[in-house]
Write a structure and sequence with these properties.
- The complex is a heterodimer.
- Chain A is 62% helix and 2% strand.
- By secondary structure, chain A is an all-alpha fold.
- The termini of chain A are close together.
- Chain B is mostly helical.
- In chain B, helix 1 runs parallel beside helix 6, helix 2 runs antiparallel to helix 3 and helix 3 packs antiparallel against helix 7.
- Chain B is globular, with a radius of gyration of 19 Å.
- Classes of the chains: A mainly alpha, B mainly alpha.
- At the A-B interface, helix 4 and helix 11 of A face helix 2, helix 4 and helix 9 of B.
């Protein structure tokens, strides 16, 4: 064991400079064989970590293609851009997993949609201010968002902390939070093309979706979705970061998965709950900003200024979340004891 | 006979070893047990929340719907305790750990259930059974001999049915390693489906899940009998007694799928 005190290079250079290729390889590419990367059925797939530092991607993402150099992207953003691309390619490699998850989201969408529309039918066609088409849209976009904002099952960072692998992240010249955020944005980009659009398309075909009436809704929705991705990233980061103190973050992960399932608007629109409870959730917790806000923007519940207000609230939570990540990371680096060795 | 006794002893040791090891980390265990309880509570609460916007769901009031939900929850929780860990099949296949089980003189399936036995799921089971007790009294079930027999039969059959689903779902890993999550559509999705009255679902979904896959026999038909209600879709009442048959068929099919899968298995190659 050895104790670290800010092992990674500090100072302004770490965020912006294009660095040598091995240094900016995303965290994920160092995943060990016990991680979730499939290497199962034999030699047909090479693990990313088996690749040399020559910047080649695993097969299935365009075998042997050099990683992009991000030319044309302004200097300060280039590292982030390349990390995001790497994140996109990493998840694009596991198409079978994406397909299976999407299938599950679609099935749950069909089931939840039946239940919620039956509830609305029993309540005279409206439920908590939503009419049928709005509820259908709410449910299917919600199912599409699970994978897009990666609500559950991200234990990568806490596993790396528990194993001590996190030391490699701290040695890199890019701030760990920014590295993971950029990678996560790339991941979300791939998820939007697969896990987001499929449930929505199925919902549109099977039930018919709500069409927005205001021109401002589509751009506001896109912004809201992006903020939800960033906020979800921050929340997951904080949950994972408890491993710096606890080593075993299972309790934190479980608490997160329960709370996020029921409080963010996935299981049912939060407006089904008593007004007082909803008000407390909106003001005091980030959960409604993860999903309910984006879904309300999509189905135009409330006026345009209210929608803009909800997105502003999301922006505030996302900013606060990232600030908290940076602060927690700072604290963690001061007390980190690297396991093993 | 002696062989059977030996087998039973071996399984008992495997389960006991798991229980002992999980009880070592007290704080973790308490957290996991609590969350296991909460998961069940949250499921049932979600169903109850639906009744905040309507008085009737699929033609049933809260009392009847809660009985169905609680029955489904108790069945799922018991199955989850016994077989929920078959979810880990894909990790075993991917890492080649399954080979370790195959070279031992016990059934691989049995070892997987016993060796990955998760004590925390007792929380889910306890909550499910408690909810069922509350639900039967809340729904005002008029107890007759038939209904007193029916309730445990329904719980057992539903449990066996979900166990069959867990086995069949886990077996997918033999063919599609990273597709384990698709099986969740039928295990966790099945729990979701059985939580609500079948009348909630329309057309294709009802035909496929309720009668194609047999989910209507887990909680819906037995609950109708317990409540002494005719089935709204014009189906005969005795269907409530058919759940053991459906469960037996499901288990037989799951066993066949498992057998085919394990013959198909060619180790991970790494």
């Amino acid at each position: 064991m050895f104790r670290t005190n800010r092992l990674h290079v500090s100072g302004p250079s770490r965020t912006v400079r294009a660095v040598d290729p091995s240094a900016w390889q995303p965290v994920a590419d160092r995943e060990d064989a016990d991680g979730w990367l499939p290497h199962g059925t034999g030699a047909d797939r090479r693990l990313p970590h088996q690749e040399g530092a020559d910047g080649r991607l695993p097969r299935g993402t365009g075998a042997g293609r050099r990683l992009p150099h991000g030319r044309g992207v302004p200097g300060p953003l280039r590292t982030g851009y390349m990390l995001a691309r790497a994140g996109f390619h990493r998840y694009a490699t596991y198409r079978q997993a994406a397909l299976a998850s999407t299938f599950t989201n679609v099935v749950f969408g069909l089931l939840r949609c039946s239940v919620i529309t039956a509830a609305a039918a029993g309540g005279g066609g409206m439920a908590a201010g939503y009419h049928r088409a709005q509820l259908v849209t709410f449910v299917f976009i919600g199912q599409g968002m699970i994978g897009t904002i990666a609500l559950w099952g991200d234990t990568e960072l806490s596993d790396r902390i528990a194993r001590g692998d996190v030391i490699a992240d701290l040695l890199r010249p890019v701030h760990p939070v920014l590295t993971l955020l950029a990678t996560d944005l790339g991941r979300a980009g791939f998820a939007v093309l697969t896990r987001f659009v499929v449930p929505i398309a199925v919902g549109a075909v099977a039930f018919g979706l709500y069409r927005p009436h205001r021109w401002s809704t589509p751009p506001l929705f896109a912004l809201s979705l992006l903020l939800a991705v960033v906020l979800a990233f921050a929340c997951r980061y904080l949950v994972n970061a408890t491993a710096y103190w606890l080593l075993d973050a299972r309790g934190a992960h479980l608490a997160w998965s329960i709370a996020s399932t029921v409080l963010c608007g996935l299981a049912f629109p939060l407006w089904f709950l008593p007004r007082g409870v909803v008000a407390v959730l909106w003001v005091a917790t980030p959960f409604p900003s993860l999903m309910q806000a984006t879904l309300d923007v999509a189905v135009e519940r409330g006026s345009a200024p209210l929608a803009a207000g909800m997105v502003a609230g999301q922006a505030a939570w996302a900013a606060a979340g990232l600030a908290a990540c940076a602060y927690v990371q700072h604290l963690a680096e001061r007390r980190l004891v690297v396991q093993g060795g | 006979m002696a062989e059977l006794a030996g087998t039973v002893r071996a399984y008992r040791r495997l389960v006991a070893a798991q229980a002992r090891s999980q009880a070592q980390y007290r704080a973790s265990f308490v957290v996991e047990l609590t969350s296991s309880v909460l998961f069940t509570v949250v499921d049932l609460a979600t169903m109850v929340v639906m009744f905040r916007v309507t008085r009737r769901l699929g033609g049933f009031d809260l009392r009847a719907a809660f009985l169905m939900a609680a029955l489904a929850s108790a069945c799922f929780a018991t199955a989850d305790l016994v077989a929920g860990n078959i979810d880990r099949m894909r990790q075993r296949v991917r890492t080649g750990q399954l080979d370790t089980l195959l070279i031992r003189p016990l059934s691989a399936l049995g070892q997987m259930m016993a060796g990955d036995f998760s004590l925390r799921r007792l929380g889910r089971l306890g909550t499910g059974l408690a909810a069922l007790a509350v639900a039967t009294s809340y729904a005002g079930v008029a107890w007759t001999t038939g209904r007193i027999v029916l309730l445990p039969v329904a719980v057992l059959s539903g449990t066996v049915f979900f166990i069959a689903l867990f086995i069949a779902g886990g077996t997918l890993a033999f063919w599609w390693i990273e597709s384990g999550e698709a099986a969740n559509s039928f295990t966790y999705g099945g729990r979701e489906f059985t939580t609500y009255p079948v009348t909630v679902y329309g057309g294709l979904l009802r035909h496929l899940f309720a009668y194609g896959l047999g989910f209507a026999f887990v909680s819906y038909h037995p609950s109708l009998l317990l409540l002494g209600r005719p089935a709204p879709l014009g189906l005969p009442g005795w269907l409530g007694w058919c759940s053991p048959v459906v469960a037996a068929i499901a288990l037989a099919l799951a066993t066949v799928i498992w057998r085919v899968g394990i013959r198909h298995y060619r180790s991970s190659g790494s």
